[in-house]
Structures are given as C-alpha cells and as structure tokens.
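ZP: hey, is the adenosine monophosphate complex queued? I don't see it on the tracker
AM: it wasn't, my bad. submitting now with these inputs:
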Amino acid sequence: MARRLSDLDVAGKKVLVRVDFNVPLDDRLHVTSDARIRASLPTIRALLDRGARPILMSHLGRPKGKVVESMRMKPAADRLGELLPGVTVKAVAECVGPVAEAAAAALQAREVLVLENLRFHPEEEKGDPAFAAALAKLADAYVNDAFGTSHRAHASVAGVTEHLPSAAGLLLEAEIDAFAKVLEAPARPLVAVLGGAKVSDKLPVLLHLVEKVDAVLIGGAMAYTFLAQAGVPIGRSLCEAELFDDARRVRELCQQRGVALLLPTDHVCAAEFAESSPASVHGPGVPVDLMGLDIGPETIAAYRARIATAKTIVWNGPMGVFEMAPFRRGTEAIARAVADSSAFSVVGGGDSVAAVEQCGVEDRIDHVSTGGGASLELLEGRALPGITALG
Ligand code: AMP
C-alpha cells in the first residue's frame, strides 16, 4: 500500500504535488471545466492546514516537448486562486532550473506555487532521471495526487520519488481504496458491467475480472463479437472476427468458474451510424441490413435486475453509441440502475463517467474514477508505476 498523506511530515516544508490540471481552455484561455482543479482541493487544503507550502506541477494538453503559448498553466493557476480564498496562488513560467528554484525558495506560508507545464520538456514523458532530480530539488517532500497519469512512469510521477519522502494525496488514496474494495475481497455478488467499442481494448480486463466477479454484463459494440462467435446474427454491427478464439475462451472461463455472462438479447438498430438514421428494436439477432447501436429494453431490464442483486458493482464503457441521442438510452438506464443500487459502486472510463454526469447521478455512485486509462490498468490487475513508486 502506498504511503498516505497523513504519514508524511510536511509542517513548514515545501511539498511538490503532482496534480492533474489538464483542464479544457477556450479560445480566450479561460478554463471551461474546473472539475480536475476542484478534485485536487482536499489535498491542497490539507497541506496548507498542516503548514506546508505546496508546489503544484501538472501537464496540460499535448505540447510535445516544447513551449506552446496556449498550453501554459497560468489560467489553471488563476482558477485555483479563485477557488482558494485567503491563499495566494502564484504561477512561474518554468518548472525546473533557476527561475523555478527562486520562485520555490521565495514561497511563504499560505502560498501555493504552480509550476509551468511539465510536458514543455520532452524529458518528462521519457521519465528522464536528471529531469526528475531537477524537479525534486524544488521541495522537501512529494505527493502524487494525479491518478489519471499514475499508469505512466513519467519523471513527475515515478522518478521524483527516488529523491524525496513521498506519499499518495487524498484523491489518489480514494482511487486506490475504491479499486481495492472491488478487486480484493469485495462484498458479493460482484457484478462487472463492460461496454465500449472494442473487445481488443477490454480483453485483458475481461480475463482478469473473470477470476474475481460473479457476473459480467456486456454491452456496446464489443457485445457483437461475442454474439457473432456464438452464431447469433449481428447484421452489419461492429465485429472483431479475429478475436473469436478469445471470445470463446472468455465464455469457457465463465462457465468453468460459474460466472454468469450476460449478453444483449435485443438491440436498438439503425441502417447507418448516424443520429438521423431511423432506429428500431430487434432481437435476439440483428437484421442483415442493420447494425446494433444500443442495448434494447429487454436487455436493459435483465441487466437492471442483475445490478439490483449486486453488493459490489464496477462499470466501464458505454452500452451503446451514447454520443447520439437515439442510442443513449441503454447507457443512461445502466447509470440509473447503478445509482439506484445499494451496492458499493465504482465507475471508470470517460464515456461511462460522462453518462453518470449527464444523468445527474454522480452523487449516488460511491466512486467516480478520475482516470480512464489508469482505472482500466487496475482492472487488468496491473500495478501502476506511480503507485508502486510510493512504496
Ligand atoms: P471505449 O472507448 O472503448 O469505451 O468505447 C466508447 C465508444 O464505443 C463510444 O464512442 C461509443 O459510441 C462506441 N460504441 C458503443 N456501442 C457501440 C455500438 N453498438 N456500435 C458502435 N460503436 C459503439
């Protein structure tokens, strides 16, 4: 288990904090969603309350190792200042070297320093040891609160821990605890709901979860590879025929382990992958000239019933083409079913998180993950470099 913030001696110290301030900006460089900044407030406040001087570092966008004016951290620092009344938030236009060092040395109590975009330096993503050492030079201790990048062995995520006493921030700790509750000794039944575009993306997750879950509910385009492999007509739905052997293996593993594998029995179909294409419900197969773009009402009812019996639920990936109104009902129904359930629930992955927010049910989900890729890697049973590095 990674060291916790409460274990770290921070009073009077400068503490380097890896946050995720990768926020969207408009043309006038105003932050259009400050959700990620707000997510880091508990850690920043806890550090300030304990007399620490936080030095925040993050990436923003994809500057590809050079300075890009529209990707500076200043707008995020300004927004943080608005969210922290009574605290002075300063931004410095470098993240390593003499300018950053002088700004760090001048930092006072009740002040926060925001360093420049880490990815202006190619060394960050390469995990360059000298760059990690240059970052570490700015502070006395290190806190990782960026779950979304913890699956990358970048300098600011992994390398710095070799130089400073380190711990997980409160946001990272909540992520670690939530996934541990699902993957280690979960309350049963444990139900996994998996959707999204490709079986190939989710296969490692499926193979790992089959060892742990009592039921797996599959939706989204990935369901059609399983249905086609079992001989159900899928019309023109997306299908990865090269993965039939893997689909068969998952099915066999479920059988051997007594895991219920639920696949859609009806579908919202259309002739074109378009919002304007007239939608109709068919089942159990998809007519030859149509494609399945969402789970149908019978499938929703079956999945909802299974979710209602769960004591632990983990959900990743939409049940249909959630971006288009006619094909979003299945994903929204699952979001509501997960929210209505009294089970411990964890939702990860950009689209399922968006669905939860769109339905306004995020307050009734126990944990909405801040990291799509990182949460998938945890569900695959992989250790994340940023967490392992915290000891
Ligand atoms: P992923 O990134 O793997 O979670 O997949 C999300 C994408 O899967 C979304 O853009 C959905 O539109 C897409 N998707 C979900 N269901 C279907 C489907 N039945 N046919 C085509 N695309 C789908």
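AM: back. DSSP finds 15 helices and 15 strands in the chain.
ZP: great, adding it to the tracker
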